[in-house]
Design brief:
The chain has helices at 9-17, 51-67, 76-79, 87-97, 181-198; strands at residues 6-7, 22-30, 41-47, 71-74, 101-128, 134-161, 167-176. The chain is an alpha/beta fold. The longest helix has 18 residues, at 181-198. Residues 1-20 have low confidence and may be disordered.
């Protein structure tokens, strides 16, 4: 006996909507011991295992900084992307670029969440009728039909004063179902820049 399973379009729509990406700045703080200062030139450092990811991240973030009125410089343009980034390389990049501030961003953790949803499944079944022939009828069964997994990543962004090396601002962000490094970086940069401006740092 052959069974055919049909999942309703409405349920598929619900599943598609559940995959929407979002990012938010959960917490940010400026060091109260640091005097107010507006940074004009920021060196953007993306701490990542894959050089290509770092390159794209820094380029997009630096572009958003420039849109915000300051000068943004991608660190890879000075250090290169072939070798793993070191503290000494960042210090050297600060000197060469003339940056007065350094923005570092890194992924600090990720977690997955599973959600089992239920819906109606329709099956076609063939049976023998009292006429001696075979007829088909549809049966609807309420059962789990999909497991949706969402991914949440935690991101840390810090601003350091290039002259003193001290951290002057820090922010913690959360991204749910991040899709596309260009989009997620642009959204993150927008949140960070607004928070820094609110503190008078940009």
């Amino acid at each position: 006996m052959k069974n055919r399973v049909y999942i309703f379009l409405m349920f598929l729509t619900l599943l598609a909507l559940s995959g929407c990406a979002s990012i938010s700045l959960l917490h940010s703080a400026k060091d109260p011991a640091v005097s107010a200062k507006q940074y004009k030139k920021l060196l953007i450092v993306g701490i990542a295992e894959r050089p290509q990811m770092r390159q794209v991240f820094e380029e997009v973030f630096a572009g958003e900084v420039r849109k915000g009125g300051a000068d943004g410089i991608a660190s890879y343009s000075i250090t290169g992307v072939s070798d793993k980034l070191s503290r000494a390389a960042v210090v050297e990049a600060v000197k060469k670029s003339g940056a007065d501030g350094v923005v570092t961003t890194r992924l600090v953790g990720s977690s997955k969440k599973s959600d089992v949803r239920t819906g109606f499944v329709m099956t076609d079944r063939g049976v023998d009728s009292y006429w001696g022939g075979s007829v088909s009828y549809a049966e609807f069964i309420h059962q789990p039909v999909e497991v949706i997994t969402s991914t949440e990543v935690s991101i840390e962004t810090n601003l350091f004063d290039a002259g003193t090396g001290k951290m002057v601002w820090s922010g913690a962000s959360s991204a749910v179902n991040p899709e596309g490094i260009i989009t997620i970086t642009g959204n993150l940069a927008d949140l960070v820049i607004k928070a820094m401006k609110k503190e008078g740092l940009l």
